[in-house]
Amino acid sequence: MNLLIDTHAHLNFKAYKEDGSEVIKRSLKNGVWLINVGAEWDTSKRAVEYAEKYPKGVFAAVGLHPIHLQEQEIKEKNFEVVTKAEKFDYEKYKTLAQNPNVVAIGEIGLDYYHIENDDQETKLLQKQLFLKQLDLAEELQKPVIIHCRNAYQDIIDILKLKIENRELTVKGIIHSFLGNYKQARQYREMGFKIAFNGIITFARDYDKVILDAPLEDILLETDCPYLAPAPYRGQRNEPLYVIEVAKKLAEIKKIPLEEVINQTTANAKKVFNLV
Ligand SMILES: [Zn+2]
Asked: How far, in Å, from the CA of 239 to the mean position of ligand 1?
């Protein structure tokens, strides 16, 4: 069986409080490796703890997600979360991120979707947080996992400036890519890859991006417990379902499934130095 890699899982989240270990075992047994991605301190720590438990195939990313800067209640379809306000502690995250099981700094980035009334102060705070964590990634020479919602231009501008100033040499991925093909090209030109999840199994908005991007620049993810792919929509998602994302990519690009699996797995191994 060919190895698949779910580059964005949250088995460190509450949704798997009862059976996180079972879900991990099931994934590994069926040839799916995974990166558990932190969104704040507790989930970052839990991601590392999970990775330490398994000698192979389970990795961690640590970081502070922009929506955790403020306390707020977020309610969307299939998504409900009460965020805690956390102040970013560089040294604390640095110590955690030095753990050899930590393969990336993430998820970090900008999320303007949940900002009310286009509040500039919150945007500025998010940008400052993002910059600090880019510095952390650079200091530790680990790639980044970027979350972006309604903020593509700001993220592109920040990355461009950092790269031009030679303050950023590490690369990474734009997770759950929701932009257009022109934005995808800009990221790819800077050396970043884009990752797709279950959304592409039920929305046709990204077919053009997928067709425009070479397979070498694409990674697979689930973003579980959210965004379950068809035919599991509405259910709790899990790493095993990443195969559905691979199938849809193969269908859109009109290439064999095996090619999608092998190439995206090779991409993930390369970006995150997975062994
Ligand atoms: Zn996520």
From this structure: 13
Strand locations in the chain, DSSP E? Answer: 4-9, 32-37, 58-62, 72-76, 79-83, 102-111, 144-149, 172-174, 193-196, 218-220
What is the tally of helices (H) and strands (E) in the chain? 10, 10
Nearest CA-CA partner of 39 in 31, 47, 49? 47
- CB crowding 156-192: b at 16 or more within 10 Å, else e: bebbeebeeeeebebbbbbbbbbbebebbbbbbeeeb
Beta bridge partners, 65, equal none
| Distance from residue 37's CA to the centre of ligand 1 (Å) | 7
Distance 262 CA to ligand 1 centre (A): 24
Which DSSP category does 224 fall into? B
Architecture of domain 4-272 in this structure: Alpha-Beta Barrel (3.20)
Each domain of the chain, given as residue ranges in start order, spans 4-272
Tell me the C-alpha distance between 78 and 228, whole Å: 10
Instruction: State how far the Cα of 275 lies from the Cα of 268, in Å rounded to an integer.
Output: 11
Segment 184-235, tens digit of pLDDT: 999 999 999 999 999 999 999 999 999 999 999 999 999 999 999 999 999 9
Given strand 193-196, what is the order of strands in its sheet? Answer: 4-9, 32-37, 58-62, 102-111, 144-149, 172-174, 193-196, 218-220
Model-level pTM greater than 0.85? yes
- The one-letter amino acid code at 46 reads R
Classify residue 150 by its DSSP letter.
S
